[in-house]
Amino acid sequence: MTILSDNRRLSSVAAPSRMLRYLPTSALIIDATIIVLIGALAVVGRRELPLFDEAASVEMSLVIAGPLILFGWLLAVALNGGYRKDVFGVGLDEFKRVLNGSLIAAGLTGVVSYLAKFDLSRGFFVLAFALGVPLLLIGRWSLRRALHAARVRGALRQRVLLVGTRAHVDETFSVLRREKWLGYQVVGALTPEWDLSEETPMGLPIVGNANEAAAMAVDAQADALFFAGGSVGSSSQLRRTVWELEKHHIDVVVAPSVSDISNERVRIRPVGGLPLMHIDPPTWSDASRWGKRTFDLLGSGMLILTFLPLLAFIALSIKAEDRGPILFRQTRTGKDGTEFACFKFRSMVVDAEARLSALYAQTGHDGGLFKMKDDPRITKPGRWLRRFSLDELPQLLNVFRGEMSLVGPRPPLPREVAEYDGDANRRLQVRPGMTGLWQVSGRSDLSFSEAIRLDLYYVDNWSMLQDLNILARTLGAVLGRNGAY
């Protein structure tokens, strides 16, 4: 493989986005604008709100103090790393830095005012920081949402070369290709010199060998180099490559051979100059404890009482359609492989199961969960019930009875469980849920293997905070009607 042919293959990919360099500046402008507006709002609020005793005007004292507070606040966020380019786009680090910098600014403002005996209005101080801190976080969140949306559309991406064996490269490539919001545009792979293949099994072009990593990164105008498993022969070789890449301001990322691990379970501990990754045990056992069960019991009970009028209306609509049964009971597999009757409002014709084999043959279904757009078995009420997932409301009874949870993996059919491999069986270690990661990530538009992957991620990385997040996202998924059929 020649350098000329490598360059031709790399030139077919879009040029790197240099707009990313303006992210810190954009964040600074947003923060400064919010702080100025909050300062003006705090002045007006201090004067107009009947919450504070002092009647004196604060405008004169803020002629000098106002700009200093503004500058000091931004400086505190900056010194705390709030405008570093590597904090944008993913993780909680960006928000932590903004929050910590704001708290430091508030503390220093109070201490300096006290020591200098400066008559800073307490009302202004409270209003400015009480309103400013959450609004700064909202501003950063809005910037991140805009960044993610741009990346999904193909803009504001970083060019990336993957280094490693073909198997390890493909593992990393599959994640980066799936999670487009991360903003990594993989332009090629570098494999060990003994590998003479022209592309990986997933079709990623191999543009050179790992020994030429630094030179190839420069030629490709790469923003980052990802080192996966089997990328280098020794740590000294990697260190020399990092030194060379440092001259060209190319980021270096080491991608270990682990995936689908939440941030909370990963800890990096340097020992003797060797960075060791510690992975905490999976949290599936926590998902079965009394705290989650109590939440399910109280939550399902309150929702049943709240939805009683809606449940009655749906029942009457189904009965009036064809005089058939209101509920559809289907055997599903729950925690530890225990089967139970899963309740749903009937959204199909009475003989839906008898027609299933004909639809299998018609669609070429070969296993897994069967979903079909414009399924001819769906009744008229069933269409709007499914569109808004109202057919699943009776599963609140399953949750109340302890057979299901509000959040968890999708309850599988026994025939699906019979086809599980060793990995998929892990999803049976927790109660199945009315909603879960699979639903808020695409619902019926997901492939069977992708739904299993999301369920396994949930089982291994459960937390109550994640449950609350999924419940909040479920409302958006239902209202958005993405993948609902």
Automatic annotation (TrEMBL):
TM regions (residue ranges): 20-44, 56-77, 98-116, 122-143, 297-318
Keyword set includes Transferase: yes
PANTHER family on file: COLANIC BIOSYNTHESIS UDP-GLUCOSE LIPID CARRIER TRANSFERASE, SLL5057 PROTEIN
Annotated localization: Membrane
Designated name of the protein: Sugar transferase
Membrane topology field: Multi-pass membrane protein
Signal peptide: none
Annotated family: Belongs to the bacterial sugar transferase family.
Domain Bacterial sugar transferase, chain residue ranges per copy: 292-479
UniProt GO molecular function: phosphotransferase activity, for other substituted phosphate groups
Keywords for the protein's UniProt record, in alphabetical order: Membrane, Transferase, Transmembrane, Transmembrane helix
Listed Pfam families: Bac_transf, CoA_binding_3
Gene Ontology CC terms, in alphabetical order: membrane
